[in-house]
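Hi R.,

Quick one: here's the HAD family phosphatase sequence you asked about.
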Amino acid sequence: MKKYLICSDIDGTLMQSNHTIGEATLAKIHQLQADGHIFAVATGRMPVAAHEVAQSVGPLTNVIGSNGAYLATPEEEIIEVRLGREAAVIAYDILKKYDIPFFFFARKGIYYNQLSPKRFEPADRDRVYIKDDTAEIICVEDRDVFLQHADEYMNAVAISEDNLPALEQARAELKQVASIHIESSRFNNIEVIPLHVNKGETVKRLAAYHNIPIENTIAFGDGENDISMLQAAGIGVAMGNAEDAIKAIADVVTASNDEEGIVQFLDSINL
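And here's the predicted structure, written out as tokens:
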């Protein structure tokens, strides 16, 4: 039997619009794991938040967090890459300049400037809030407070629907910073991650760890920050709710997250 690595984005892919994982999807994952296949969540969420979801799936679930800056199996942590002090400070100053709400994520901390994660809009709250209070939530509107933790940040996300022009200006400026990489998971956000880090490279690393050929990997996603993963995997599957640009680069388009598209595709290949 071929052993497969199946990697899934969380928001808009594994989770439905009601922020839960469908029963059929959970059952399929458990069946795959029982058959000896490897399942991983691959998300922009910080490690603690990614592990929360992984635990809700089951104890055998692997974790790719912080858009690839973090990797863990059930047995051990393999990768933890940080932005670095200089890059973090540059990103902070640009986002402050354009007055955009942002969140910097450390291993067990959320650092925000304007909106507490507890008061954030429901559509984005899961991205920036830890449900079981295992992470510190600290306001860093004061630059000196931000600097106290500048060596700890792994990635960041800026979210704004009220001022999209400012968001785009900040995105353009951040893209000129040579020491960071910029992606997005939704139209209203900017994701700041370490240079040369992405989900795709970490999927390759996880496949090698489990001695699984890259052609035996399957990745599911719906956003821009999933592109590298869809391209790296043996089969890249875009969800039916994905943006057209994501569907265009995918090998296959399945049904939406609300229709449990992960299950529909895996059933179609008899996995």
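The two ends are 11 Å apart (CA to CA).

Cheers,
M.
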